[in-house]
Design a protein that fits this description.
This protein is an alpha+beta fold. It has helices at about 1-15, 195-205, 220, 235-240, 265-280, 335-340, 360-370, and strands at about 45, 50, 55-60, 70-75, 85, 100-105, 115-120, 130-135, 135-150, 150-160, 165-170, 175-180, 185-195, 205, 210, 225, 230-235, 245. Helices cover about 15% and strands about 25% of the residues. Strands 3-4-6-9-10-11 form a six-stranded antiparallel sheet, covered by helices on one side. It has a three-stranded antiparallel sheet with strand order 1-2-8, with no helix packed on it. The chain is globular, with a radius of gyration of 21 Å.
Length: about 375
């Protein structure tokens, strides 16, 4: 038994030591607002690469939240001697001292000037080998969500043009960028870095108590394989192996969201996963949009609770003259379709977090609404 425990401990140390050892150790700041991202020693630009410190574990999600086609490098770090606890429904129960990071970046457009970024959905290889080559990416921002004694605290750091450091921007930022697709088509847009208040709005678990929590690190989002450089492994099992997660049941008992871009998954599963990750942070019984009575979580029944044949409560002119949130078989008569396809302030949904339309996601939701059966004319 002692040998088995020793072997497990050695394995955990090896898995945690896959990154640079010459960085100062990661640092949890229990109070204050460090001015630079490097003050945390989690994610740093070094020798032409964006690198993670020892013990900073990358992860990904089954379905990604859309933010102007930006790519996201997500990580988790915890102090020695503490672990998160498994939760089947909400986010994992993270201990005080946890630092969750999300670095937003774009692949640079081929032969483009500074600010020309590639519009691509290909995330494969973005972090193979545990680093990103800075010459091939455009870093925009890194957000931290830090579990302090009083609760979660958000921080937003914006990268300088030289991509050597990111500094704290409590009031957010706006950057003029140009998306360039594989055919060379260009789309100018303003990438909006949120202020701290906007971070709170998205992450609120309870709009009355104003408590916030992580959105992505939930078991159903994390239940997938990740390429850690030395091979692929289920992310939840990896967190258990490195001592970051306790009380996890057998993997077969863990829920799993669909990847909305996976054609082998059903249309319904893909659409519900997309709506869950992109909309349910507000559209749930306790979120910012709870007054609408319109919820978009993965487990909401497909009836009026999901907006099917439901009249809006508070949308006003944002309805575009449409009568119901979702009209089965009729996407162009559905308020949901109207709002996710808009970039107009006061109309578009989500209200923050994007300046462009997710054309692929829009097509998915259109196909899903077309597949729904029913007739709103007979609803009383």
């Amino acid at each position: 038994m002692k040998c088995a425990k020793y072997a497990a401990a050695v394995l955990a140390l090896l898995l945690l030591a896959g990154c640079r050892r010459d960085m100062p150790p990661p640092e949890f700041h229990a109070d204050g607002r460090p001015a630079r991202l490097s003050d945390w020693h989690m994610v740093e630009a070094r020798d032409g690469r964006l690198e993670l410190n020892a013990g900073v574990v990358p992860y990904s999600l089954n379905s990604h939240l859309f933010t102007d086609y930006v790519h996201k490098l997500r990580t988790i770090w915890m102090p020695r001697g503490v672990s998160a606890k498994y939760a089947a429904n909400g986010p994992l129960d993270f201990p005080v001292g946890t630092v969750i990071s999300k670095t937003f970046y774009y692949p640079r457009a081929a032969d483009g000037k500074f600010g020309d970024v590639a519009r691509t959905l290909d995330y494969t290889g973005d972090f193979a080998g545990q680093d990103l080559r800075l010459a091939s990416v455009h870093l925009v921002e890194t957000r931290l969500l830090v579990r302090r004694k009083e609760g979660w605290t958000p921080f937003v750091y914006v990268w300088n043009k030289e991509q050597t450091e990111a500094t704290l921007m409590r009031t957010g930022d706006v950057q003029a960028l140009t998306l360039v697709d594989a055919q060379g088509r260009r789309e100018d847009f303003n990438y909006v870095v949120p202020d701290e208040g906007q971070c709170v709005n998205c992450h609120e678990a309870d709009m009355v108590g104003r408590t916030i929590h992580p959105i992505g690190p939930k078991a159903r989002h994390l239940n997938r394989d990740y390429d850690y450089g030395s091979g692929r492994e289920n992310q939840l099992e990896h967190l258990v192996d490195v001592g970051y997660l306790l009380d996890m049941p057998r993997l077969a008992e863990v829920p799993k969201d669909a990847n909305w871009r996976d054609p082998s998954a059903s249309l319904d599963a893909r659409a519900r996963a997309y709506l869950d990750i992109n909309c349910a942070m507000c559209h749930n019984p306790h979120g910012e949009a709870s007054v609408t009575g319109f919820s978009l979580g993965y487990d909401v029944p497909e009836d009026h609770h999901l907006g099917i044949c439901k009249s809006p409560e508070a949308a006003g002119p944002a309805t575009g003259g449409r009568l119901f949130d979702i009209v089965p078989g009729k996407p162009d008569e559905s308020i949901l379709m109207h709002r996710i396809g808009s970039t107009r302030p006061g109309v578009m949904m989500p209200e923050i977090g994007r300046s462009t339309v997710d054309r692929e996601g829009e097509a998915l939701i259109r196909a899903w609404i077309l597949s729904l059966k029913g007739n709103c004319d007979i609803v009383h």
